[in-house]
Amino acid sequence: KKRYIVAALAAVLVLVLGSTMTSVGSKSYWKVLWDRIAGDEEASIINVEKMESQETSDIDEIRVYKGILNELGISTVRPMYIPKSMYLKEYEIDREQKGAILFYEYEGQVIRYMMYMNNTDSSHGQIATDKQVDEYQIKAENGIVITIKEYTVDNSQQNRYIAEFEYDDAQYQIMGIMKKTEFEKIINNLVFL
After folding, report:
1. What's the pLDDT tens digit per position in 97-107?
2. By three-state DSSP, how is residue 46 classified?
């Protein structure tokens, strides 16, 4: 009887772990179910068959990254850490210039994430009134060197940070006004696909 219980428990664990691993990028079915049981989420119907097509910011973001890859051929580098109050507001894909810009909103500020192919004639300048106060580098796990520049911003207690790096024949730039610790947490949790 004990062997039967252990085998059944092992089977359930395999199913749960398997379903959570396949749900990366969107809400896990088990997480949603647990939230409902615990009372942390409002009651609504879970349609497992249509979870990928439900309107959530996670799925929209995945669709945007897939569109950038399909339309521009740019391997997307995705931030796996996003602060709770930061969300993708809008995006632009420029087929002619072979570039894309994602606009995130965070605490009343716009965080820009740009990616463009190396062969495009792109120059991204900085606002003339901003004064550069620091420049340093962070090395990603895969050896990619990310250069971060810090600027003071008039009428703001927080500084502007710009991270720039190159990966798989494309240039990337993440820019925004936020706390240094939050910005670095985003940069340190980039996933290179």
Report:
1. 899 999 999 99
2. coil
